[in-house]
Specification:
2 copies of one chain form a homodimer.
Chain A: H1 14-21, H2 25-32, H3 40-53, H4 59-66, E1 71-76, H5 82-97, E2 101-106, H6 111-123, E3 128-132, H7 142-147, E4 151-154, E5 166-167, H8 172-184, E6 189-194, H9 202-213, E7 217-222, H10 232-241, E8 248-252, H11 256-265, E9 275-279, E10 293-296, H12 299-315, E11 322-323, E12 329-331
Parallel strand pairs in A: 1-2, 1-3, 3-4, 4-5, 5-11, 6-7, 6-8, 8-9, 9-10
Antiparallel strand pairs in A: 10-12
The first copy, chain A, binds a DNA duplex through helix 2 and helix 4.
Chain lengths: 341, 341
Amino acid sequence: MVADEWKPGRVVTLKDVARHADVSISTASRALTGQRNVQTELAARVWAAAEELDYRPNVAARGLRLARTMTIGAVFNRLESPVALEVFDGLGEAAHEHGYSVLVANAGGSAGEYQVVLQRLFDQRVDALVLYRPSGVEAQLQPFHDLGVPVVAVFARGPGSGDLPLVTNGPGAAIAQAVARLAELGHRSLAYLATPVEMRDNRTTHLREESAKYGIEFAMHPLLDDRDHASIGPVVHDVMSARHRPTGLFIRYRHVPGLLQALNAGGLEIPRDVSLVSFGDAEWLQSTRPPIATINVDGQELGRAAGRAVVEWIKGTAPPAVIQPSSAYWVDRASVGPAPA
Amino acid sequence: MVADEWKPGRVVTLKDVARHADVSISTASRALTGQRNVQTELAARVWAAAEELDYRPNVAARGLRLARTMTIGAVFNRLESPVALEVFDGLGEAAHEHGYSVLVANAGGSAGEYQVVLQRLFDQRVDALVLYRPSGVEAQLQPFHDLGVPVVAVFARGPGSGDLPLVTNGPGAAIAQAVARLAELGHRSLAYLATPVEMRDNRTTHLREESAKYGIEFAMHPLLDDRDHASIGPVVHDVMSARHRPTGLFIRYRHVPGLLQALNAGGLEIPRDVSLVSFGDAEWLQSTRPPIATINVDGQELGRAAGRAVVEWIKGTAPPAVIQPSSAYWVDRASVGPAPA
DNA sequence: GTGAAAGCGCTAACAT
DNA sequence: ATGTTAGCGCTTTCAC
């Protein structure tokens, strides 16, 4: 057989398949979508034709009819942290598994930009929205809510994110282990260096509670919400030159390079002068000297869970307020050592 | 005014706008798409109605009609290297600037997976395809070529990628600077550690040529194409325990952690025993001790260029075989020091 | 300049 | 069980 009338630049459509199999369009459609109201023999003919013509259904067209685009919108503030990447990876995996594609967008940071990004996703009529660490986006989500489009937050949700279902993990156990280890090594004063936004994380609560258990002092120190490494320097200097300076530091992954530079500049050595724990792991944290202990998150699993959640939601079953597919885990490395005398 | 007849779960459509402005659908369309054959007064009414109803055109529907989906497909082997991320970022930026969204997919590695990913993108009828470091995908691209869908490779293209237009940068100048610096510091023997695939990069050629200029010995050493850090150990051991061991090492970013571990395990220090240059930069390379010199690529610019190229191509003007928006640059850091005696 | 109508590719009544 | 028809939201002839 020969493809009936094929022009080079034209994509083969359901009509072509139907004609080639000598059935009506609707029969072809039914056969290909696997409905039962079609004779086995005809169905076979349709499938053969489709195969031969290399027919690929136009998802957009089907979406128009079904009011589903089979795309999931994902918004990241920037794919910068390893966790964000993992989440993206896992999300894609879960989405593809269910036939969805992922339309991803980076919102650089400003609210205005976020607005634009959401608008584009709305224009594309995504079937669901996955927001990584959203913050203050409640208002801009209204159009999606009006349409009943599922929206979930992943990893964390800042203030002003309304009551989006949150896909996250429980850092409690891992933080407990970390603090226990530090207590065991004689540490009596810990600190968490974080930007004001980050401080709202439940990590803060856990750190405080666990520290209290051992009678350990715990303090938070605000970091500028700045990308510049240097900006961390003064804070570290202040913290470490105080009379009662902490002997154990917790800090988010993205600030580690800056922190290392700052400590280095101050002549402070890890773990001799201060122990260090990073929230978030990466390959290179294992090859620094010393390797840096982490409290880590299985971002991929988070992403997968988020994907599954929205797909289920699309099908009708709304998720609970919090989904916790896995727990963070504690990775002990040489950056955690005995408290200095 | 009040939204005529608005049901909660329904999205406002062009029809709604037309009715609200009391014009025909086609006039509304013309007004909103900014065609001239429409009275100023009517146009104003239409715009007002659109504004009031918060009308957002359905891109998919428009796409169906115009045979353009306004999406660009991007395929990464995995968003793992910092450059890949930057490229993605830049691509998104350029795409959005021109009204396109980016449908991104990760192909884990196997050819089969790549096939599936491409198929999904085809089903979504992406208007163009951007492939990051593609290799051996020529055959699977046929459907896109048949349809005249623009496809470009970014950063590099492996064997079997046909004659895809390539968006890349010229590493020549930067490599020349690096080798010059090493020569100046007395190095007489350099090596490039890379997986067999990576060795096909034009970096190899440049390294060889530049080394030759100074009469410097240059050797390539194959790495297993493995994600496991440990697998690099034996190779490093072999290379560094040879009688004529190199005093300067070039290696791709992603292998740096493994290399550092291996050198560390072998009791070798940078730059005392060997100097190191990484292809590809990252924040943490500045905060290791010593900081690691790099030959770096402006991935973002690459991504932007790729985006611009496919958009232009969609509009009709095919790109040249190679687009080189910027050059790689040499970043001297303390990992490059005097050759050991 | 404006509206009516056709049609992009597909699915889902509705007829038979 | 199959074909005919309508219509998803939009643009664009084609008449007037």
